[in-house]
Design a protein that fits this description.
Blueprint lengths: L5 H15 L3 H26 L7 H18 L4 H16 L11 H20 L1 H4 L5 E2 L17 H22 L1 H11 L1 H6 L4 H27 L1 E2 L1 H4 L3 H13 L6 H20 L5 H14 L4 H15 L1
Antiparallel strand pairs: 1-2
Helix pairs in contact: 2-7, 2-10, 2-12, 2-13, 3-4, 3-5, 3-10, 4-10, 7-8, 7-10, 12-13
Length: about 325
């Protein structure tokens, strides 16, 4: 991130937790929103810098979830060590998708979607390892954290928030690096960057590995929150579609836009739209997204920045 807004950090780490304390439902919704935010940031990194629109991030999410569950239950790994290891497993699994990097546009998106279905089928069939369609239960939860009494029970929130902010920081560093410049140049003319000696396939591969690592860690974290996994949940299309909606809504070409978009969209869906329509409330998300694309194609954050700029101009 170009600059750290300390008031925002204080708000997220002190004021928000104090408000959430004692409201377990709202706390669980906030943690779930941060989980979606983590996948949205990983999707935006691949879509914005890598120039690859993915419809299959559920594959990385599910692989990370199963990897962490297996490492902790079958091999006795500590949860906090299994989570990053699960992200590495998702990155390794993404190597199978490298041939798809030579595709572009909708062809790449459909290819990644196919991989997600393949991994779901594998998780169902490998019952000796994954429990098959019956799933895995009693997955170890997150360890307790030494927090003041005022903030006790908020460990999952702090861990999820730190994870998402770390992803944003990595996204920012990559964006401002030589590799980020080369990737953005590829968007204008991939052939021209190849003439200059840029290995476009290799750069895209690194973005795929990094994006998979992030999504895998989020999937692992979620597995230790819900303590249960089954293939249809772990590889659900929800983990592919909702982050896309969140990232585009918030502004996937910005660093923090996907995170903000995920929190706003998820909270609106669960607290407002779901209360209005108990079933089919996801349809409203599509309407909201369409309206945002028409009114502010660059997302919510860009709309806010435009209004802020107008106020400064008027002043």
């Amino acid at each position: 991130m170009k600059k750290i807004l300390w008031p925002a950090i204080i708000l997220l780490y002190l004021i928000v937790p104090a408000l959430l304390k004692g409201d377990s439902y709202l706390l669980s919704l906030t943690v779930s929103a941060l989980i979606v935010a983590g996948i949205a940031v990983s999707w935006a990194l691949l879509g914005n810098l890598g120039g690859m629109i993915s419809f299959g991030h559920a594959a990385f999410f599910g692989i990370g979830a199963y990897a962490s569950a297996i490492l902790t239950m079958k091999f006795g790994w500590p949860v906090l060590l299994a989570i990053p290891a699960a992200g590495a497993c998702a990155s390794l699994a993404s190597l199978a998708m490298l041939p798809a990097l030579r595709l572009s546009g909708p062809y790449f998106a459909l290819a990644i979607l196919a991989y997600a279905h393949i991994f779901r089928i594998l998780a169902t069939q490998m019952s000796s390892l994954t429990g098959g369609s019956a799933g895995i239960s009693s997955i170890p939860g997150l360890p307790g954290f030494a927090t003041p009494n005022l903030l006790s029970g908020l460990g999952p929130y702090f861990l999820a928030l730190t994870l998402v902010l770390a992803f944003c920081l990595v996204y920012s560093r990559v964006h401002s690096s030589y590799y980020g410049i080369a990737l953005r140049a590829m968007h204008d003319s991939e052939d021209a960057t190849r003439i200059l000696g840029v290995n476009s396939v290799m750069l895209k591969a690194w973005m795929l590995l990094l994006s998979a690592f992030m999504a895998g860690m989020v999937g692992a974290f979620n597995a230790h929150i819900i303590n249960f996994l089954e293939p249809d949940y772990a590889f659900s299309s929800t983990w592919s579609i909702l982050p896309i909606i969140a990232a585009i809504f918030g502004g996937y070409r910005t660093i923090t836009g996907p995170m903000i978009g995920a929190i706003v969209i998820y909270m609106l869906d669960q607290l407002v739209f779901k209360a209005m329509f108990s079933s089919g409330h996801q349809i409203i998300l599509g309407v909201v997204l369409a309206a945002m694309i028409l009114l502010a194609p660059d997302g919510l954050l860009s709309l806010f920045n435009q209004r802020k700029g107008k106020k400064h101009a008027q002043a």
